[in-house]
Design brief:
- The chain is an alpha+beta fold.
- It is built from three helices and eight strands, in the order H-E-E-H-E-H-E-E-E-E-E.
- A hairpin with a 2-residue loop joins strand 1 (about 30) and strand 2 (about 35).
- Bound molecules: calcium ion (CA) (2 copies).
- The site of one calcium ion has 7 residues, from loops.
């Protein structure tokens, strides 16, 4: 009987491989990641705390495909014009990195003229509807919607 159960499980995993990679409730799947688009607003620190609570991290956009998925979702469904992502130049001004990384971002989609470090205090970043859904840098204490990723 146990052998049959194991066989049945094997067949299920073989027929429905995506079931094993299912996203937590509220997260949306794209390729090998799951994304959560917040309906609440928070500063960079608050957004980080919420993502961590959901066992995720602020989204890291590594290539055009991922960028187009996240931008596309925001264009179609977003309730807010600004969505915070997980990059900052807190470590070294003018050198934006994804969280926990030292090397600069490889893929980037800044709006022309950004990051501007306007007023000398823009060290966090995200997707800005007023800039064609490309990236802009903001003060880290600004409260925005945000995207978590697992
Ligand atoms: Ca800056
Ligand atoms: Ca800016």
């Amino acid at each position: 009987m146990k052998v049959w159960n194991a066989l049945l499980l094997l067949v299920i995993v073989w027929i429905f491989p995506n079931e094993a990679l299912r996203c937590p409730l509220g997260f949306i799947r794209h390729k090998h990641s799951c994304y959560w688009f917040s309906s609440m607003k928070g500063s960079f620190g608050e957004a980080n705390a919420v993502c961590r609570y959901l066992k995720s991290h602020l989204a890291e956009i590594n290539n055009r495909d991922e960028d187009e998925f996240v931008r596309g979702h925001i264009m179609r469904h977003a309730k807010s014009p600004y969505y915070l992502l997980g990059g900052s130049d807190l470590r070294l001004e003018g050198r934006f990195t994804w969280q926990g990384q030292v090397t600069p971002m490889v893929y980037q989609n800044w709006n022309p003229g950004q990051p501007s470090n306007y007023g000398g205090q823009e060290n966090c970043m995200g997707i800005d509807k007023t800039m064609g859904y490309r990236w802009n840098d903001w003060p880290c204490q600004d409260q925005h919607n945000f995207v978590c990723e697992i």
